[in-house]
Design brief:
This protein has 166 residues and is α+β, with helices and mostly antiparallel strands. Among the domains are: 29 residues; 86 residues, TonB (TolA/TonB C-terminal domain). 41% of the residues lie in helices and 19% in strands. It contains five helices and five strands. It has a three-stranded antiparallel sheet, with helices on one face. It has a two-stranded antiparallel sheet with strand order 3-4. The longest helix has 27 residues. The chain is elongated and about 110 Å long.
Amino acid sequence: MIAMERYHAILTFFVPALCVSLATEAQTRKPELPVDTVTSEIVFQDLLYRHPPQTKNPSEEKVFGCPIEPQPEYPGGYNAMYKFIETHRQMPRAAKRARISGRVFLAFNIEATGEITHVAVLKGLGFGCDEEAVRLVESMPRWKPGKRDGKPARVRFNLPISFAIK
């Protein structure tokens, strides 16, 4: 009877310990790599070379981001643009009260027609300055568009607009 109790005590202690040990080993075991890894690489490389890429004549390829000549221009040039900004910019009340000064960085498209579209604030000041800068750019007259290959083209343009308390 005593032997049976010892046997039962041993089983109740070692069986759960054995189960925990096996479960831990199963969780930490690393999966084995497939045997045909090299074969699959060769097949993959073989597929790459079966259909070599078609090369184009460099003169036929269009490179986006290439220089636009001439660049888009505000009617009358940069001095006229800054004069327009100075005369039409209104300092928002919230910015005046908070005594905010700084620059709002905008990005916008100048279409092939010279129209300004997709005005976005890249870095703003808040306190109404961002909205005022967007309003200001959207109210600008049509620009003289930039050209690519002698044809008018859409250009993305960045512009900082300064706000300061006078």
